[in-house]
Design a protein that fits this description.
It comes from Jeotgalibacillus haloalkalitolerans. By secondary structure, the protein is mainly alpha-helical. The protein has helices at residues 13-21, 40-63, 68-85; strands at 27-28, 35-38, 92-93. Bound molecules: zinc ion.
């Protein structure tokens, strides 16, 4: 779970969730008000997870012979699960780290 690197307090899930949605902009800690950034590793992991989600959807479409409707439902379900799980792995930093 996201922990502020300034005051070492845990962020509520809803805050971490918003943090995931706005990766590149800093977000103020709800406890101390200090700006916090998502770490490079968290951003890389999210990119990997997005790739994995795309792979699962494409793989299912190719090998399970699902109808378009089933595939669309599966895609939405996998996407929603990925979005809901992502905030649990968010790590914060006091400084913005360049991705590369
Ligand atoms: Zn804080």
């Amino acid at each position: 779970m996201a922990v502020c690197q300034n005051c070492h307090q845990k962020w509520p899930y809803s805050k971490a969730f918003k943090r995931i949605m706005w990766f590149n902009s800093p977000m103020k800690c709800p406890h101390c008000g200090e700006k916090q950034y998502v770490t490079k590793n968290t951003r890389k992991r999210s990119a990997t997870l997005s790739g994995l989600v795309s792979f699962i959807i494409i793989f299912s479409g190719l090998f399970l012979e699902l109808s378009f409707t089933s595939l669309a439902i599966l895609a939405v379900a996998v996407f929603v699960i990925a979005i809901l799980v992502m905030p649990l792995g968010v790590k914060l930093s006091n400084e913005d780290e360049p991705l590369w």
